[in-house]
Inverse folding.
DNA sequence: CCTAACGTTCGCTTGTATTCGAACAATAGA
DNA sequence: TCTATTGTTCGAATACAAGCGAACGTTAGG
């Protein structure tokens, strides 16, 4: 079993978290994980090549935002909610809320023809 | 009077904000502004060359996090707290709290010799 | 053992950020 | 007007991140 690396919660750096969240592909992953609680990589690959997505999972893992556990041939991803809430109280909830707001706005923009 | 550009609050994108916050120099600026309410650029330049710092102010401005108003020869920076709280309720407070936690941790690490 | 499925890792290209000196613009004061 | 001060802008070097095909490793099933 090939273990993947996850930083200890005390070593999670705020800057790395923000960096991880600065890419729309990754905020979308985080957003989905927030509602689905867990998901395999293929469930989250939106038609994109897997090498690209694997890169994003790694960034999210290294930043401390998600945890990936291996079951059979597939990798199951979850948000590290409880741990993160201990480390940075209230932050993840606020971020998830904002991602939701942002996602809503993007949908609006698209409806107005701004996203096409 | 040379006006600087600030995005309208509706056009502030979450990803840009996170990107702006992904650099320790900038989180420090934000952290200081959170306690000082306002500060000129020289007050925030920690011995670094001003062209570098000016770049960071610009990133923070473009991301929507700070506002710079010009008074005489100096530029006075403030956080766009109220506006941001309307756009992403609770986010900025959580971020400021986290930056504080992070800053505290870094001070600890340094005391332990990890930061040298 | 052989093959298919799931993701990671490698190597490369392209694009974007950071850094900093030097030149510039705007204001204040002598 | 001349000079000092405050910050921005330009330009170039360097470093970092995204994207993707191809090769690889691991597990499941035949």
């Amino acid at each position: 079993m090939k273990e993947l690396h996850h930083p200890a919660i005390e070593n999670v750096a705020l800057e790395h978290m923000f960096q991880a969240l600065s890419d729309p592909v990754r905020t979308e992953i985080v957003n989905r994980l927030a509602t689905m609680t867990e998901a395999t990589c293929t469930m989250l690959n939106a038609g994109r090549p897997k090498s690209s997505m694997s890169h994003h999972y790694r960034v999210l893992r290294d930043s401390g935002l998600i945890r990936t556990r291996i079951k059979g041939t597939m990798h199951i991803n979850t948000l590290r909610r409880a741990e993160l809430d201990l480390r940075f109280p209230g932050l993840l909830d606020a971020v998830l809320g904002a991602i939701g707001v942002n996602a809503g706005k993007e949908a609006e923009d698209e409806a107005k023809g701004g996203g096409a």
Summary: Helices of chain B lie at 14-20, 24-36, 41-44, 50-63, 81-87, 91-112. Chain B has a mean pLDDT of 91.
